[in-house]
Write a structure and sequence with these properties.
It is a single chain. The strands form two sheets. This protein has an eight-stranded mixed beta sheet with strand order 1-9-10-6-5-2-3-4. Strands 7-8 form a two-stranded antiparallel sheet. The protein is globular and about 50 Å long. With 233 residues, the protein is α/β, with parallel strands linked by helices. The protein has helices at 36-46, 62-69, 133-149, 172-180, 202-210, and strands at residues 12-13, 52-55, 73-78, 87-88, 103-109, 150-160, 163-165, 168-170, 185-193, 218-225. It contains five helices and ten strands, in the order βαβαβββαβββαβαβ. Helix 3 links the parallel strand 5 (103-109) and strand 6. Bound molecules: S-adenosylmethionine. S-adenosylmethionine binds at residues 26, 30, 32-34, 56-60, 62-63, 78-80, 90-92, 109-111, 118-119, 123-126.
Length: 233
């Protein structure tokens, strides 16, 4: 058990840097890159050595890299692969060679609105505003694919933020959680502290106080389980 003592024990995860503990996992300059320790905590808790971990929105590849370095099998894919070991595919139609009902863990760090364009692919879900109900319809399709490839009792970790934009707050996290709970059983919700965002500057802090709004200080990490005893999607 000694090797497990550095696992997070509470529902607030705050890591000093994106690459903490995994210097080569992901690209710290990639917009919305996942903290490597977040991936590590999910992999170590919910996938055993040799188990399959999938990441359908792989971006710069943090989750797959961490999973492999911990001895798990990993299939990362996405629309804008940044590494040669990431497949090019749409998260709404997961590609061969991912088998049905076999993965132990799916980790999804998705866009949370249309604030960031990830490349020129028109299928990018980062082109749909979180104020548009289509956003949640498309995320439901991604969740259905995760459900299909996860084994009974397999775990889904989904990272997402709320949005405050031009005077309008959207509770993206809670809306998404309602969608995910149509298929999965919620196990827990973690607050993932954000650092180094473009809005983490004295100018934005001044604006937040002056115009009476809040900067996004955290993302949600929803942890859910495919109900034990269920098979395909
Ligand atoms: C927050 S980033 C993921 C960051 C990644 N985990 C990392 O550590 O670099 C969101 C990713 O979702 C991808 N994405 C958006 N729409 C997609 C789709 N329909 N299918 C697959 N990937 C998609 C974007 O290309 C982007 O790489």
């Amino acid at each position: 058990m000694l090797g497990r003592t550095d696992l997070e024990a509470s529902t607030c995860w705050d890591f000093p840097s994106q690459s903490d503990g995994h210097l080569k996992a992901g690209d710290a300059t990639f917009n919305g890159v996942t903290p490597a320790r977040c991936a590590e905590n999910l992999v170590r808790r919910y996938a055993r050595p040799g188990d399959l971990v999938v990441d359908p929105m792989a971006g710069s590849g943090t989750i797959g890299h961490v999973a492999r370095s911990l001895g798990r099998r990993a299939i990362p894919f996405g629309l804008t692969p940044k590494r040669s070991d990431i497949l090019r595919a749409d998260a709404r139609a997961w590609p061969w060679p991912i088998p049905d009902g076999k993965a132990a863990l799916a980790v999804i760090d998705s866009p949370y609105s249309d604030n960031l364009a990830y490349g020129g692919d028109s299928r990018c879900l980062g082109r749909i505003s979180c104020r548009d109900s289509r956003f949640y319809d498309e995320m439901r399709r991604v969740a259905a694919e995760a459900f299909r490839v996860l084994r009974s009792g397999g775990v889904l970790g989904w990272i997402i933020s709320d949005e405050y934009r031009r005077g309008f707050y959207t509770a993206v996290g809670f809306r998404l959680l309602n969608v995910l709970a149509e298929l999965f059983e919620p196990l827990d919700t973690v607050v993932l502290v954000r650092h180094h965002d473009r809005s983490a500057s004295p100018m934005w802090e001044h604006r937040a106080r002056r115009f009476n709004f809040y900067l996004r200080g955290f993302k949600y990490l929803f942890i859910l389980q495919k109900p034990v005893g269920t098979s395909g999607g």
